[in-house]
User: Fold this.
Amino acid sequence: MKFTLPELPYTLDALEPHISKRTLEFHYGKHHQAYATNLNNLVLGTEFENADLETIVLKAEGSIFNNGAQVWNHTFYFMSFSPGGGGVPKGKLAEAIDKTFGSFDKFKELFSQAGATLFGSGWAWLVKRPDGSLDIIKESNAGNPLRNGLTPILTCDVWEHAYYLDYQNRRPDYIQGFWNCVDWEIVGKRY
Ligand code: MN
Assistant:
């Protein structure tokens, strides 16, 4: 099959207690995998049969877009974490965060709020505009900022499947835990 999941650079229990092994077994092992399997089936015989994932995210519509963007978004999300995560960004990203939001704490507050208040299923994103400035945006369902010419820097999946096993309805608690998993070394390279 053409579209596959990334191999995670950590074990499934590495993000505990913030994101449990059981959540990763379902979220990565079942949900992410299902989007990739669906995408592989959906593109057969279409103009996207030989397209790369980014082209699908940028150009496709309907189910091909939904499954393709969900593959992209989940890979980006899972590849932002490490067991030694948390702390604060450094270098150019840290400077841009301070410049745009005033401080890292203020950024965290605004990003957490965006994730907590997103109605229904979707993703909170930290993005870079073409001029280098930053913004926090919310995207519903499979939404992806590349469609609007923005560069994704960090994302938090706020679909219920991302947190329900660990936190039930307490999405804000999941988002607090999320900060302890983010590897700023990896995320900083995206800026
Ligand atoms: Mn998800």
Summary: The two ends are 31 Å apart (CA to CA).
